[in-house]
Specification:
With 126 residues, this protein is an all-alpha fold. The protein has one domain. 66% of the residues lie in helices and 0% in strands. The protein is built from 4 helices and no strands. α1 runs parallel beside α3 and α3 runs antiparallel to α4. The radius of gyration is 17 Å and the shape is flat. The two termini are 28 Å apart.
């Protein structure tokens, strides 16, 4: 379920990034409310995801989904330029995100050692 939260958080990051184009510097009320709402939803879903996915992995996947998605939307919706290097760079982001997802190894004992615990907690061996 955490990966679904993370995917949805990434989608809402794309939504706020794309919608921000319509705020005209946050001078347009409804697009600005849309951006703020999508940001809040994205952060809440990211927070839910990092309960069971390591922070570094979750943040990298979230940012990668948002960055690649916003760039792709820019090309499709706003006729932004494409070049070989831009496409290859986007592919690298997508491959990195997929690698983090499919090479993710949860704890075998079923205990998530990545839950928030104070540094140096003796019960965790730190």
């Amino acid at each position: 379920m955490s990966w679904i939260y993370l995917l949805c958080a990434g989608v809402f990051e794309i939504v706020w990034a794309v919608t921000m184009k319509h705020t005209d510097g946050f001078t347009q009320l409804w697009p600005s409310i849309g951006v703020a709402s999508a940001m809040i939803i994205s952060f809440i879903l990211l927070a839910c995801a990092i309960r069971h996915i390591p922070l570094g992995t979750a943040y990298a996947v979230w940012a990668g989904i948002g960055a690649a998605g916003a760039a792709i939307c820019g090309v499709i919706l706003y006729d932004e330029p494409t070049s070989l290097w831009r496409v290859l760079s986007l592919c690298a982001i997508v491959v990195g995100v997929l690698g983090l997802k499919f090479l993710y190894e949860p704890d075998v004992d079923g205990v998530n050692d990545h839950d928030a615990t104070p540094l140096g907690d003796a019960r965790k061996g730190g």
